[in-house]
Each structure stands twice: as structure tokens, then as C-alpha cells.
Amino acid sequence: MAGAGLVDLLVLGRVATLEGVHGFGWVEALAIGEGRVVAAGRRADVEPLAGAGTRRLVLDPARHVALPGLTDAHLHLVDAAVAEEELDLTRAPDAGAVLAAVSEAHRARARSGDQDGWLLGRGWAVDRLGAWPTAEALEAVAPGRPVALWSHDHHARWVSPAALAQAGIDAASADPRGGSLHRDEQGRPTGVLHEHAAKLVDRAIPGRDDEAAARALEAYARRLWAWGIVGCHDPGEASPEPDLHRGPALLGRLAAEGRLPVRVHACVRAEQLDRAAELGLRSGAGVEPDDRSPGMARASARFRVGWLKHFADGTLGSATAALLAPYEGLAGDALPSGPAGGLLLSPEELAADLRRAARAGLVAMVHAIGDRAVRVALDAIEASLPEARETHGGELPLAPRLEHVQLLDPTDRPRFGALGVAASIQPAHLRTDRGPAQRLWGRRAE
Q1: Quick check: 251 pLDDT over 80?
Q2: For residues 326-365, b (16+ Cβ closer than 10 Å) or e, as one string?
């Protein structure tokens, strides 16, 4: 416990510690010195630590409560910052509202002199639209404009005819590994790109100025800090650059320049694994200067390399999560990955990638939503653990984890504890995906 004179601030009132066995846990006073909490407890015990220069913040117990700073365990920080300037469709309730928003954005661009530039956005959901949308629907409301709209789960992209043309996508285009083009009966792309196919338009979208991206990221991070979110685990960009020019490099540079107000563990995506290994990026470490990557700079304690982010399957909303049994209530056109969804790569390929990452010093984080994907991901992590522990001298700097784990076969539940794998579950999905999970997985509400 700090002595008198080392305390810069006393917070007096209702202070939540998050240490309660049942609920928050509460104390009357908090002492802060040199940016750290040095004591928490009864007011009579904490107040004597104050010195002549200590400030006091007295909270009105009827109106205010002090909470610890929060860490968001799954926040695509770079993508979220950039998306602030894009079309947001998350609140559009149906197809008519979505198309009306696209139409208005198109007209606003045209009025400003932008007649045919790219219109980017996100937030639509096939459940709200009633069916998979089409490129022609976008052409009707934004004629001639290239449009690319991520779905709410970032596992599908809805694009216009101009976007397809500029990306060189037509009936002769093959489905990429781990993705598919939605097609009509003649095999022509209809305008929805599933999973890894969603990245096929990236090559046609003009790149963003580095400093503009940095400013957007800095501003967004300051908003998070103001809301009490003081840290995050960033699973990486939806369209990562293989050379690591953005993502961890950009975050590391901002931290080194004192422009990153929140602490970030930034993931390396599977597409970036070779480059990350070349640069010597390791889970839990900062970023050292490297002439081969000018964007990399020595980072402050606010930046650390996180995990290798990989994908076992897609999502329930896009009907691409990999299940142990077929989806219920869906057939034909609604099932882009087959009756039971599908893995984005074989179990053997996933295991091989995770072992390669383990040898490079990167701990595994695997997106797994369907119960089959969870089982395959646990198998792959288990196979990689001996090499991961050897690389790190026995103890891993971060826990391996599965992201989402929305569907889980009961026989696989004990494996998380036995392997030391974290189940990173997002509370927001209790609201957004409860209905699809019950409907498509075969469970019914009581």
C-alpha cells in the first residue's frame, strides 16, 4: 500500500471493484498514484494515504458510480474507425429501408460532384432483407456506381454491377478457397460474395491515405476512452494487407507517437503469417523498429501483438457456420455452404497453420461458431500446443482462444478447461443471434 504523499487522487463514493462473488463488489474509496490504483477499501482506511497535494473527487451516491476501465475482448478497431465514415445500415429494418439509404447516399455523393466513386457501407442482414439481395437492386438505386456493402457479420458482401465489373468478376470467375459467389441458374454472379470471396473486390477499391486512416483511428480510440473502454483485443481487419502495412503496424506507430489512448492487443491474420514471422512478431510482445517495414516502430505499453486470428467457419446469419447436423428450415438458395454449412479449410490445413504459427511464436485465436467448427478448432489447437509451449519456454504469454462459440456440443465443453483454451463469447450475440440459433440449430424457446 502506498504511503501518504504518493496518492494523486482520492475517489470517494460508490466504487465498483468487479470483485464481488455475486455482483459487482463495492468499496467506499479509491486511491490513485502515478496513474495506478494503489488502495481500495473503506474511506477511513484509504483517506489517511492522502497528502497535501492530493485531489479529491467526491461522487454523489444517488447519481454517480465509479467503474473500472473496461477491455473489449473483440473489437475490430481499425475497421470500426474507418467504418465511421461509411454508410451504416445496421438500423435499416427491411430491404426497402436499406435501398432507400443507399439511394440517398448515392444522390448525396452525386450532389457533391462524386458521380461514380465507390460507395462503401455495412450492416445489412439477410434475415431483415427476406432473401439474398442482388446487384440489380443496387443498380436501380445507385445506377453506374460501384457499391460494396458488408453484411452485419462481415461474412458476406453485397456489390453492384459496376463493382463486379471493376473487380473483374463474371460467370467465368472461380470460387476462391474458403468462399463462394452467389450465382443464378446460368452460373452468373448475382451480387453476393460469401466468406473469402468477399475480398475479391478489395483490389478494385482505392486505397486509403495512411495519415487519414491514422487520424480516424486516433479519433475513434479517444471516443472509446471517453466511454470507459480503455483497452481492446483487435482480431484484425476484414480485408488484411499481407505485407502488414496496416493493422498492427499502424497501431504500433500510433502507440509509439503517443497517439493511442487505449491499450491494444492486435492480431495477425492468417494471410499475414509469413510476413509476421519474417518480422519476428510474437504474441505478447511490442513491435521493434525494422528497416524492412518502415511503419513498424518501438511501441509503448499501449500496444502488444495479440494472437494469430484464423477462421474455421462462417456465421449463422450467413448460413455458413459449420454444423454437426444440417440446418433446419433452410434449403437450396439459402445455403451457400451446403446443408450443414462448411469449414473454410480442411481440419488438416487448419492444424498445419496453427502449428506453423506456434513455431513463429503466435498463439492461436480461431473463429468458430458452429458446433462442428468448434470441435475442429479445439482439435487443431490441441495439436499445436506442444510446439507453442516449446517456442515460449513452457508457458504461453496469452491463452489460446476460440471466438464466439455460439453452438457447442456438450461433449466438447470440458475440453476448454482441460486444454487451457478460452471461450471468447460476445454478449451482444445473445440479442442478435439468439433467434437464428434456435431456429436454424433446432432449438426452440420454452
Answers
A1: yes
A2: ebeeeeeeebbbeebbbbbbebeebbebbbbbbebbbbbb
